[in-house]
Design a protein that fits this description.
The structure is a homodimer of 344-residue chains. Chain A has 344 residues and is of the alpha/beta class. Chain A folds into three domains: 8-51, lambda repressor-like DNA-binding domains (434 Repressor (Amino-terminal Domain), Orthogonal Bundle), CATH 1.10.260.40; 65-162 and 297-326, Response regulator (Rossmann fold, 3-Layer(aba) Sandwich), CATH 3.40.50.2300; 164-295 and 330-335, 3-Layer(aba) Sandwich (Rossmann fold). In chain A, 43% of the residues lie in helices and 15% in strands. Chain A has twelve helices and twelve strands. Chain A has helices at 8-15, 19-27, 34-47, 53-59, 76-91, 105-117, 132-140, 164-177, 194-209, 226-237, 251-263, 297-312, and strands spanning 65-70, 95-100, 122-126, 145-150, 158-162, 183-187, 219-221, 245-248, 273-275, 292-294, 322-324, 328-330. In chain A, the strands form three sheets. A six-stranded parallel β-sheet of chain A has the order 2-1-3-4-5-11, sandwiched between helices. The first copy, chain A, has a four-stranded parallel β-sheet with strand order 7-6-8-9, with helices on both faces. In chain A, strands 10-12 form a two-stranded antiparallel ribbon. Chains A and B meet through helix 4, helix 5, strand 2, helix 6 and helix 10 of A and helix 4, helix 5, strand 2, helix 6 and helix 10 of B. Chain A binds a DNA duplex (30 and 30 nucleotides) through residues 7-9, 17-21, 23-24, 27, 31-33, 36, 51-60.
Amino acid sequence: MRKKYADIIDVAIAAGVSAATVSRSFNHPDKVRADTKKRINQAVERTGYIRNRAAQAIHGKRSGMIGLIVPTLDNAIFANLIQAFTSTLAEHGFTMLVTTHGYDLKSEYQLLRSLLSHRVEGIALIGLEHNAETYDLLELRETPCVAIWNYNQLSRIHCVGSDNFEAGQQIADHILSKGHKNIGTIFPQLAGNDRAAARFAGVISKIEEAGLKIPNELRSQSIYSIKHARICCRALLQRDTPPTALICGNDVIAQGSIYEAQALGMKIPQDVAVAGIGDFSGSGEIYPSLTTVRLRANKIGIEAAQLLVGVINGENTQSLTRIAVDLELQERESTNFQINAENA
Amino acid sequence: MRKKYADIIDVAIAAGVSAATVSRSFNHPDKVRADTKKRINQAVERTGYIRNRAAQAIHGKRSGMIGLIVPTLDNAIFANLIQAFTSTLAEHGFTMLVTTHGYDLKSEYQLLRSLLSHRVEGIALIGLEHNAETYDLLELRETPCVAIWNYNQLSRIHCVGSDNFEAGQQIADHILSKGHKNIGTIFPQLAGNDRAAARFAGVISKIEEAGLKIPNELRSQSIYSIKHARICCRALLQRDTPPTALICGNDVIAQGSIYEAQALGMKIPQDVAVAGIGDFSGSGEIYPSLTTVRLRANKIGIEAAQLLVGVINGENTQSLTRIAVDLELQERESTNFQINAENA
DNA sequence: ACCAGAAATGAAAACGTTTGCATAACTATT
DNA sequence: AATAGTTATGCAAACGTTTTCATTTCTGGT
């Protein structure tokens, strides 16, 4: 046997046509006669041919792959987002090449190079905070690229996402409207995580607008873990004058806070109100249900994929597209208590 | 400008060597003199060269990509698994090409063809239940392949995972040891989901071994959703003689059951015990903490990646490797109550 | 200084496609 | 039935690498 698997020439011979015609039959089906196409398809069947996209990618464009760089897959809401993104891509004939950097922006540049070496047709990144060399390389290679998850009207690249600053504002507004004056926060580390940083800035802006402030002792920092969040929460709630409300950087931290408050025998929302950001699957179903700001991960994923495909196909020629996906404050049980004047 | 981006020849010219030497400098660094290598690296820097893996893949093997076919990414424990898998692959220089089929095994074959057309060097599948044509194609193309998540000593391909039948047995044993006789189950649909099917079979085997049986009315079916699980749980708990224990097919369903029981004013585990399978992140932290069987997603992901890389590199020549990753029963609060004879 | 053997490099073919151009085969018009 | 126009197909070059084989350049022993 000369070679291992059937190539386009074997198919061509089996179908009694030239390789060029076989190729056209796949890529420009309208340019080949119906009966020829049928013969070719039979030949494909007979020979067990599977086309080689590497060979296809080599000269022209079409590798059929999109690269995604994501901090981690191990995170409920990213998983949500990525599922929507990848299945939408699949509808358009693209497959997703995924890499993760674990929140280490320094390695992002290398991952980008790796994806480019695979000649992906487009790149998706999470968030808008990236190294200068990452941005520069994207520009240099003129790679279609979209930033997912954050919306920012000054973004350097296309973006599809929600305004995290606004999310912070919404949840802070809600907490303030319930009469809270003594408020604590539990957020992830802000450096290298522009989502968390923007949310926090939104919270602070509204608090200060209301003439209040959050002292440093009530600004707690937790990783993305229920267990660790519980520890942070406990520290806050066992202070001499514990906060009457906790604003958490995401729903995982908020859930941990709820469990810990319960474990301490406190009533939610009467003794302490808890709010999150994200509206993860389950947040509306736990007891008490969690007040949060919904980030529509599914919608963001779909829109981002559509935008990227559009850019690749040259439909989106001129300027930068920035899509703000709306937020929805979800008022639920965990904050459903009005503080009266005496309590304040 | 002749062409858009620097290719290997541009680098060769810039470095004053031939293309062959540049290629060797990447692929067989020991075969080229140190100072030549240095000159080449400088030339790479200067020209902004990014090598083209498509061109590399075209003739020989090395595409540097592994294909993964997964039911969905949108699932806490798969996300866990996949994160471990992809980061281990990355350590070995591979990038992961991901596709999802949403539990539709029929489309799996097409996804496999698509991955093969990208000339991935290896394939990972979830579970062992696949169409005959999927298995046949894998064999025909002699593609290194590993099934992740399930262990079965009769598997047709390499596998790394836990024995779901045993997981079902373990949790059933535990529930029986607490004296329960009136037991309900809430499982996902079993067809097309060999994990769930094996777990259920394990549960049933132990129940029957104990001389008990679970009537059809107490066998409930729920999708992977807290909300839907709550509905199923409610139906079971509102029966005239509700079960004293619920065995759930996974921790998401178990969590939903806990919330619903609480909402119905029932005490866990006194009024009803709840057990899950999986030990998702958070299951040990909720209140009451959930008794479950730990599936070590992280370990499975890492081992699977190592096995697959080994097979690709020809280290694992002879027979099929099947790795059983151990289970760990996690006894927690949600079942911590012994039924006495009168209650039974 | 010379030579044998080893190490480094280069030239060219090969990998499996796609595509521009040329040609052949149809269609429809007269 | 001839012709012009259209449509379908084939030929061959090109894409960017890797690799085999041949050649050149070292290296060290005499």
